[in-house]
Amino acid sequence: MRASALRHSYDGVHFAVCQTDFTVPAGTSLAVVGAGGAGKTTLAAIVAGLLHPTLGQVRLHDDVGDVEPADLDSLGRTAWIGMIAQESHVFAATLRENMTLAAPDADDARIRGALDAVGARWVDALPAGLDTVVGAGGHQLDVVAAQRLALARVAVTDPPLVILDEASAEAGSSQARELDTAAAELARGRTAIVIAHRLSQARQCDHILVMANGTVVERGSHDELLARKGRYATLWQAWTKVADA
């Protein structure tokens, strides 16, 4: 995918994303890093086609041609893009129904394969398996289980591009490590954009963009950015102190 000269303003005055360009080669991963308000989530929404940029464009490519995400209908967007947002929704329905919302033709083998791929082993303990009602009025899922369900819902649709904007687990916690592993499995073999709320997520990616005030201020690999001793290196040093505390 390629983003060219992206600019986006919510109010027509202030830009949440300013003159941003980047390319993510097929099958590679890109982390987007920055403090709150840097423009990370706005950028993710633009790439996902949920926002049409004020200026510039995003193009997704495959063997047939290319498209702009904002021009896709809901079915087309699901076929191209899988997104994990900061809040994962568990619908008051059976686990099977939760899994087939975006993939109504998925059979049980495909559903279980997607759940297994993200390490959702808690499914085996459910009283009625895939027929167990989850969410309000049913079996309650904890934060990690709900996020694994969200990851599995993307896995079952098998899109070529995944966007991960997950922020529910505390840095350094076992929950964070579990979710990082599950997300890495989902991203494997796909083009991935990771909105890195924990820098452990960024370290796993092929390339990193560092944003500040809507602008890309650094780019490179984890090792390259540490060697430059710039903004990313400062963020990494601060984050590792918190994660190790």
TrEMBL record:
<feature type="domain" description="ABC transporter">
    <location>
        <begin position="1"/>
        <end position="238"/>
    </location>
</feature>
<dbReference type="GO" id="GO:0034040">
    <property type="term" value="F:ATPase-coupled lipid transmembrane transporter activity"/>
</dbReference>
<keyword id="KW-0547">Nucleotide-binding</keyword>
<dbReference type="InterPro" id="IPR003439">
    <property type="entry name" value="ABC_transporter-like_ATP-bd"/>
</dbReference>
<dbReference type="GO" id="GO:0016887">
    <property type="term" value="F:ATP hydrolysis activity"/>
</dbReference>
<dbReference type="InterPro" id="IPR039421">
    <property type="entry name" value="Type_1_exporter"/>
</dbReference>
<dbReference type="InterPro" id="IPR027417">
    <property type="entry name" value="P-loop_NTPase"/>
</dbReference>
<dbReference type="InterPro" id="IPR003593">
    <property type="entry name" value="AAA+_ATPase"/>
</dbReference>
<dbReference type="Pfam" id="PF00005">
    <property type="entry name" value="ABC_tran"/>
</dbReference>
<dbReference type="GO" id="GO:0005524">
    <property type="term" value="F:ATP binding"/>
</dbReference>
<protein>
    <submittedName>
        <fullName>ABC transporter</fullName>
    </submittedName>
</protein>
<keyword id="KW-0067">ATP-binding</keyword>
